[in-house]
Design brief:
Radius of gyration: 24 Å
Strand order of the largest sheet: 1-5-6
Number of helices: 4
Distance between the termini: 26 Å
């Protein structure tokens, strides 16, 4: 015998997020490799500035825009004046995003889908097991639509775990679609 007794979505703070996709700060440019670029966080105060090395956008390379349609490139050029200026703008956006993180304006989250099942040979003695699907690195200020998409993807992954325990599609659908799983 087996049964699904609970389904819950838990959101917690990701205490060890990987923010390297944004870049890094340093008191001075480090230049560890040829594709590294550093920009001042305060161009008006170069004596006391902290430097930022964006993970993306700089140094500017035309080939980094290959995946963008000509129509979209023209829109970017119209807005910023050139693709190079757009890259600089985006690098500063990443810098401000990382500064906002460091100032507590947003944080990373872990979203977990936990399904509690019970299994028994005799109907008297039950073994309880939590099955978990989770993903970290979710930006706390992401909209609900994005977070719901992630939860729905985890539900899809959870279905295969539940099938491996012998639950059929109706049992799974009933459990994952009940109010407790919202």
């Amino acid at each position: 015998m087996k049964r699904i007794t609970n389904v819950k979505v838990i959101t917690t703070t990701d205490d060890m997020p990987d923010l390297s996709f944004l870049g890094e700060f340093s008191r001075k440019p480090l230049y560890r490799h040829k594709n590294e670029a550093w920009i001042p966080t305060d161009p008006d105060n170069m004596r006391h500035t902290i430097w930022f090395s964006p993970c993306n956008h700089l140094p500017h390379k035309e080939e980094n825009w290959r995946h963008v349609s000509e129509e979209d490139k023209q829109k970017v050029i119209k807005e910023f004046g050139s693709l190079r200026k757009a890259d600089i703008h985006y690098a500063y956006e990443d810098m401000r995003r990382l500064q906002a993180y460091e100032n507590g304006k947003w944080y990373m989250e872990i979203i977990a889908l936990v399904v509690t099942i019970q299994v028994s040979e005799d109907g008297t003695h039950w073994v309880t097991q939590d099955l978990v699907e989770s993903i970290g690195g979710i930006e706390s200020d992401s909209d609900d639509e994005y977070k719901n998409m992630i939860i729905n993807e985890m539900k899809e992954e959870m279905k295969s775990q539940l099938r491996s325990w012998g639950f059929d599609d109706d049992e799974i659908a009933n459990a994952l679609n009940r109010e407790w799983a919202k």
